[in-house]
Amino acid sequence: MVRYKSKMVERIHLPAREERERNLADAGYNVFNLDARDVFVDLLTDSGTGTMTDSQWAALMRGDEAYAGSRSFEELESAVADVMGFEHVVPAHQGRGAENVLYSALLDSGDVALNNTHFDTTRAHVANQGADAVDCPVDEAHDPDADADFKGNFSVEKAREYVDEHGADSVPVVILTITNNSAAGQPVSVENTRRAANFADEIDATFVLDACRFAENAYFVTEREDEYADATVAAVAREQLSYADAIVMSGKKDGLVNIGGFVATDDDALYEQTKQLGILYEGFPTYGGMAGRDVAAMAVGLREAVEPGYTEDRVGQVQALGEALAARGIPVFEPIGGHAVYLEANAFLPHLDREEFPGQSLVCELYREGGVRAVELGELAFPAADRPELVRMAVPRRTYHREHVEHVVDTVAAVHDRRDDVTGLEIVDEPEMAEIRHFTAELQPVE
Ligand code: F0G
Fold first, then answer.
1. Which residue segments constitute the domains of the chain, with CATH numbers given?
2. What is the pTM of this model?
3. Is the Cβ–Cβ distance between 38 and 19 less than 8 Å?
């Protein structure tokens, strides 16, 4: 059941097929180079692209822009305390700003961070401290055929093996990313969170939750973890987050806003340290790189994220998209994640070698066919990495309707029908830094 009606609308436009063809060539077969106005349904990311409620817009108008002591910040503190259970909040302009502040405090050169799977910006911030990012996903995380409820889980066994081999002294941080964005958006169970927290405690490490999608994760727990079958999303979220010493948050996801983030903790010493770093990198501790109005809107958004029915509707839309695609015989990663549907590009285009960028070819075909923008997570984004070749279709929150979902399904199915004729791509131009080449690289079809 959808629980919204529209109060404001934005016109979107599907360019004619020849125009889409031209746009694609002009963009160097890289959809990051497209103008957003030429995109009909934009599934590039779920980050900062959602729609705010009338309550959030009302809060925005009342934002307090004071440099110090802003009332809007008090509202945020109170929302974080009520929804997430933490006393101290250090605001930041977005998730990676919060990561910079937190990991500057927790990591030194030569250290190691263990994580179920590091998201790209997390990995980059760990590296920026001269530390190593080591992933400990469960074995089924990257197996599209494995049937498991919590493929996002942290492998305590792999983490323990690492520590047995290298010693615990170099591991000051254990991180759990919920949901696990880099493993097809799969959830993490509360039971696994508890075990990871105990492990961190054993080795005397700080236990951090990357809580970007904490409400979506809590929804999966209520659906799939027996112990929580009768619990509310709000109660599960509170409990799951309670095991963390600190959380790092991008408000652009389950904060339900277009920009913002924060670190939260109950640890007085860590708070003091991150607060000082926040002043250095982000801004005074009562705004931290956000306008007061954005802080106010995020305070409302956090409360809405755990309201009854919100996640059911939100995750339900993503599931409906995935299920409709699977029903048309399209290879999707299963179970379907919370914020995105991941297409398996190798199975979709089996005649293309990985060197011919099947994922990116599929992304281009989706735009060519229906003006749909997705993102490649394969050979172009992660050169020579041991990861499946995936295409992510991330769904913005509270933004698209059933008709948009149907258009996306029809688009993917139309490409699937003519998949044998889809050719590969080759790189024409790429920047020096391989880690970020997918944002700006230019490609062309292989003849
Ligand atoms: N952690 C996770 C798990 C994320 O998914 C993201 C962003 C961040 C941290 C960084 O937050 O963008 O506010 O600085 N993910 C976006 C995405 C970009 O498209 O998945 P940010």
1. 17-39+309-445 (3.90.1150.10), 54-305 (3.40.640.10)
2. 0.96
3. yes
